[in-house]
Amino acid sequence: MARGCSQVMLRPRSSEEVSRILRHCHERNLAVNPQGGNTGLVGGSVPVFDEIILSTALMNQVTSFDSVSGILVCQAGCVLEKLSQYVQERDFVMPLDLGAKGSCHIGGNVATNAGGLRFLRYGSLRGTVLGLEVVLADGTILDCLTSLRKDNTGYDLKQLFIGSEGTLGVITAVSILCPPRPKAVNVAFLGCPGFAEVLQTFSTCKGMLGEILSAFEFMDAGCMQLVQQHLHLHNPVQESPFYLLVETSGSSAEHDTEKLSCFLEQVLGSGLVTDGTVAADESKAQALWALRERITEALSRDGYVYKYDLSLPVEQLYDLVADLRARLSSLARHVVGYGHLGDGNLHLNVTAETFSAALLDALEPYVYAWTAGRRGSVSAEHGLGFRKRDTLGHSKPPAAVQLMWQVKALLDPRGILNPYKTLPARA
Ligand code: FAD
Ligand code: MLT
Ligand code: ZN
């Protein structure tokens, strides 16, 4: 857990107020930590020393919604779940969803380039965010809040701020493309006998469900044990080494159900899947999703958690979990793997009763070197924040890191925006 000791939190209501705050801080060299819902997992929203917290909590207004194009324009402090409800009432959905939806802000989502549970279907925020309004370190308001699908006029500056974790500017408003709300959603929860079968089920799934597949998530038996033990959730299928959550979203219930049934017949018949259940109603679908979405919460109740969020070639996604289980043996309480298998994103988590330097030494830099050895990413979707900033070099060459420092110096020459975050500490 990252802890700071800030004495000031400011909660502006408008971009103009953010601009005045930043101009003031820039003139006086005061460090500022932008903060959304404070749900980030790498300490980016937590002041390290005495940074002023600039919270978007009161910037929570929807500016406009176009019911033909599905383009939503809103302030950065809108809570994701509230936006989801807002667009669903108008027959659209947000292109992203994540377990922290009840607290995280859309500005925080964009600042971290959050991936989440709908990435497989709707892709990255780098595609769905159409425009941003950003206040720069010196208080300049940069209005790139367009709502155009296509715009090749010059450099696409908004991309610089997507995933910049509050180090290059404060995002004050977002224009985002929302897909139509699918008329039919099906959720299946499956048990698999091994990881090889998980991979084959994924291939079969892509082949048979193709255009209606909207999520392919996995969790191992250790995760299931934790959600049962700490959250008293019920396992709806036979105990298995791996579990899969498959979601389809489409426009015809009859067509989708038939396709899903054929897929289930195929994977159950061939032994790739040993047991499965399908949600017949919304509340069962939510109960199945809870098994996957609440793993983070269950882990936090298991003791001290070492969290790793890795992109890896999908065939090797689970190798590191098995390797670490053997390597750490009794040093760890649990070594578990879950994540967005459809996106090649593993969440590797290790728990212990309390923090242990010996366990940390056994994990790092081993996990990062292992990942770099397979040309993976040491942060697939959570960012680097405070906790992971020194791992950047495992996934980016020195020339890229150098260029990042140059961009930082250009946009924030006095280094007031979220210092100590994202870019590595310099010797
Ligand atoms: P914060 O935590 O407040 O801030 C995160 C970073 O963004 C900080 O560096 C902060 O300085 C910066 N920031 C915040 N707002 C702004 C702004 N307006 N302008 C500039 N910078 C800003 N992430 C995923 O990618 N996929 C998941 O599936 C996922 N699931 C999660 C599930 C749980 C239970 C939890 C607790 C977290 C999960 N996350 C996931 C982590 C994820 O990064 C965040 O939940 C979310 O995107 C952060 O939004 P926030 O508003 O809470 O931002
Ligand atoms: C998830 O997919 O559940 C999140 O990214 C949170 C986590 O990794 O714990
Ligand atoms: Zn995730």
Automatic annotation (TrEMBL):
Domain of life the protein comes from: Eukaryota
Keywords from the named record: FAD, Flavoprotein, Oxidoreductase
Enzyme nomenclature, EC number: 1.1.99.39
Short name of any one Pfam family annotated for the protein: FAD_binding_4
Cofactor(s) needed: FAD
Gene3D superfamilies: 3.30.465.10, 3.30.70.2190, 3.30.70.2740, Vanillyl-alcohol Oxidase, Chain A, domain 4
GO-annotated cellular components: mitochondrion
Ranges where the FAD-binding PCMH-type domain occurs: 1-181
Catalytic activity: (R)-malate + A = oxaloacetate + AH2; (R)-2-hydroxyglutarate + A = 2-oxoglutarate + AH2
Enzyme class, UniProt record, top EC level: oxidoreductase
UniProt entry tagged with the keyword Nucleus: no
Gene Ontology MF terms in the entry: (R)-2-hydroxyglutarate dehydrogenase activity; FAD binding
SUPFAM superfamilies the record matches: FAD-binding/transporter-associated domain-like, FAD-linked oxidases, C-terminal domain
Family the UniProt entry places it in: Belongs to the FAD-binding oxidoreductase/transferase type 4 family.
Biological role stated in the UniProt entry: Catalyzes the oxidation of D-2-hydroxyglutarate (D-2-HG) to alpha-ketoglutarate. Also catalyzes the oxidation of other D-2-hydroxyacids, such as D-malate (D-MAL) and D-lactate (D-LAC). Exhibits high activities towards D-2-HG and D-MAL but a very weak activity towards D-LAC.
Protein name (Swiss-Prot/TrEMBL): D-2-hydroxyglutarate dehydrogenase, mitochondrial
